[in-house]
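Progress note, sequence design subtask.
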């Protein structure tokens, strides 16, 4: 059972002489419950591919489909959560408000979203920061809030774009612990883009991006 499929997907930014092809002819399937690392250097197309998988970017050509999810983009957004690479918290909102926001915007009642958010903040180890503003948080704390916000959606597909890229080794390891545990609890597929081999080694599969092209592992016994 696949939660997302890409069929010959490409994404180009700009036009004419200024056009840049970020993703070339990508075809792949992500199964329910998968644990996948997308590895590659900066600028290799990892982030663009994750945004295509999430439905945040539309392909220039090819198709992305979500066979198990609702057809409506708003309803589908309840099943797909993204943890972005850089700071993505709204500075005027406190930690609890930031954590609740995505679930409320996708139709969850505020009381239920708040209940989920408090559980998620406890799960990521920062229950005491609910009233703090983002400017008072460390990088690791802010990334944990971003993970908690994603978990509040109760997604079936969890996408994380370089979630440890701006963190020290210890904090990065803790963030990955939280992501893996959350995916297990939710029964969600987890896809993490990373340039860090230590992060990639924690996932069951490693796919590689080079110059916008996706290279899948060769299965044992394949010709």
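Output:
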């Amino acid at each position: 059972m696949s939660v997302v499929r890409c069929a010959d997907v490409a994404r180009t930014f700009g036009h004419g002489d200024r056009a840049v092809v970020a993703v070339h002819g990508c075809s792949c399937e992500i199964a329910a419950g998968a644990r996948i690392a997308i590895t590659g250097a900066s600028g290799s197309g990892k982030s663009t591919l994750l945004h295509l998988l999430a439905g945040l970017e539309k392909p220039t050509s090819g198709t992305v489909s979500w066979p198990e999810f609702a057809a409506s983009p708003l309803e589908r957004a309840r099943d797909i959560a993204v943890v972005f690479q850089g700071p993505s918290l709204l500075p005027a909102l406190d930690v609890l408000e930031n954590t609740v926001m995505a679930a409320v915007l996708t139709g969850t009642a505020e009381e239920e979203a708040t209940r989920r958010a408090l559980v998620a903040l406890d799960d990521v180890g920062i229950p005491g920061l609910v009233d703090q503003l983002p400017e008072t948080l460390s990088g690791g704390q802010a990334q944990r809030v971003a993970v908690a916000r994603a978990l509040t959606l109760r997604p079936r597909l969890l996408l994380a774009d370089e979630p440890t890229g701006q963190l020290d080794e210890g904090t990065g390891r803790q963030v990955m612990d939280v992501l893996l545990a959350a995916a297990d609890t939710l029964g969600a597929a987890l896809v993490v883009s990373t340039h860090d081999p230590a992060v990639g080694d924690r996932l069951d599969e490693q796919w590689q991006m080079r110059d916008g092209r996706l290279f899948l592992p060769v299965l044992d016994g394949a010709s």
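The radius of gyration is 17 Å. Work on this subtask will continue into the next period as scheduled.
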